[in-house]
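Replying to the earlier thread about multi-chain prediction with a worked example.

Input:
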Amino acid sequence: DGGITQSPKYLFRKEGQNVTLSCEQNLNHDAMYWYRQDPGQGLRLIYYSQIVNDFQKGDIAEGYSVSREKKESFPLTVTSAQKNPTAFYLCASSSEVEQFFGPGTRLTVL
Amino acid sequence: ILNVEQSPQSLHVQEGDSTNFTCSFPSSNFYALHWYRWETAKSPEALFVMTLNGDEKKKGRISATLNTKEGYSYLYIKGSQPEDSATYLCALGADSNYQLIWGAGTKLIIKP
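Result:
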């Protein structure tokens, strides 16, 4: 089955701890993305990567970091510098046009 | 700062009725307009990607139109069915399809 997997589905962390969200795709897509969704708002782009070993900041990159060492993988680290990390996080990938999304990770910081 | 607006925020429609909703965007920067459907407990799925002014796209009972000069797109659903219940998202690609600007969505609920 081709698709995008995100793990875990739910994640709880204590304030001040870094946490890494996993995103893997087997669609052979070059581009990958991380979005954040908050209630009542549209998806907001955190980081995106057009190709392996390269990535760009989106609109809300502060407090987040990413790596793109492999085409299939684009992990997102939510650092302690992110002031309000509790949110729903979506990963996506694309070839040229439409984006394909994973099931999301809901992060709650206690 | 570019902003994409969707209206209404939510919509209740009787099964069998037709409906439509709007996505508004700044007409000054335009590369592409995307529509996605997001069903509860699932991932968003692409419906349409539109690039040309006057473009019309159709998939089954769902269709969309695009006016890039005035900055809006309409999504139409004909003969609504319960499986159409979802949040419909539009997103503007201002310079490319990489950095999309997303609207907050229209939540459609079909009443049996």
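Chain A has no helices and eleven strands.

Feel free to reuse this layout for your own posts.
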